[in-house]
Specification:
By secondary structure, the chain is of the alpha+beta class. About 20% of the residues lie in helices and about 20% in strands. It is built from one helix and five strands. It has one helix spanning about 50-70; strands spanning about 15, 20-25, 35-40, 75-80, 95-100.
Length: about 120
């Protein structure tokens, strides 16, 4: 099966740069959320080239400015899933950008909150 991130549809691209694109996630709960995806196929963040790292950071700043203007979030979760055990479903590196709002039921619970629960303890 071809990688869906290697050639994202142009109508899904919100912002772009030389090495990366930002696409929105069509998900009603995480309003404004999206992904920064390197144009070249890289399996995880650990495989990014230097110019892809720089470009990702620059594009992240542009994405934040856009989301701040559109949604005025109270915070952000930014994260990479690397490997199936870590929740990576599409094995093409992608940075999650998730605006957060103080009126959410799970406001104040960061990306590690779920991992720190006793139910997640290794046996």
């Amino acid at each position: 099966m071809p990688c869906p991130f290697c050639d994202p549809p142009t109508d899904e691209i919100v912002l772009e740069s030389d090495f990366c694109v930002f696409t929105r996630i069509s998900q009603p709960v995480l309003v404004g959320s999206g992904l920064i995806i390197p144009r070249s196929h890289r399996e995880t963040v650990f495989d990014l080239a230097e110019e892809e790292w720089r470009d990702t950071r620059e594009l992240l700043g542009q994405v934040k400015a856009m989301l701040d203007q559109q949604y005025t979030p109270d915070g952000y979760n930014i994260g990479w899933n690397c490997g199936s055990v870590a929740g990576q479903e599409i094995h093409h590196a992608h940075l999650h950008v998730i605006p957060r709002f103080r009126d959410e039921p799970f406001a104040g619970r960061g990306i590690r909150w779920w991992l720190k629960q006793d139910e997640n303890r290794r046996h």
